[in-house]
Amino acid sequence: MTAEGPSERAPGETVVSTIRHGLTELNRDQRVGGRLDVPLLEAGREQARQAGAVFTSRGVDVVVVSPLRRAIETAELVTHWRRSSFEIDELCTERSFGEMEGIDPAEVPTRFPMVEYLRIEDIGYSLNPPGGETFEELHERAHRFVDGLIARHAGRSIVVFSHQNFLQQMHAVLRAMGPKEALEYDILNCELNEFRLGADRGLLDHRVRQLVASAGDHASF
What we know:
Strand content: 15-25%
Radius of gyration: 17 Å
Largest sheet: 6 strands, mixed
Number of strands: 8
CATH architecture: 3-Layer(aba) Sandwich
CATH superfamily: Phosphoglycerate mutase-like
Distance between the termini: 30 Å
Helix content: 25-40%
């Protein structure tokens, strides 16, 4: 099996890789997750172990992780680094869905009839979750995260472990896309995205790799 790891950097370049966490009960049961702090399922841990057998952290300088358990567990199993070595950053936690967190999306029209959706293929993205973040707000948070990340670690190889909705917006920032355009790109469990940035922060290259063959069994909803 071919090892996957960060690309070699030319002088002045920064490599930013992202990996989404493994499977949780929220993914499996297609419930609205957000900031609910659930652990990985055993199947999610197995995904992370499989990803860790493929991904090599050789050459990685810093690992930045969401404070939620599912991201931290995944980071430990994929990188084989100790939790104490991670940089925990609240800015890269998942989108807040406010009062909708933990419920079945089928309940939303009855409980929260004011919520509007943007449909992209088979996925419905809630635009105004009560008490939660809009995509514009999430995009702005992702922008602040990327700005801080590059300010602290320019010229290094960084791996970020986070969540579907946040990573969509983070990727959009790196690719100079808007918050709605970001939603056209689904991110599977343990999916690796790598962005190679020039000294001016311009995007030089973007690659996507699926580290776990079974990730597509639990696509987003």
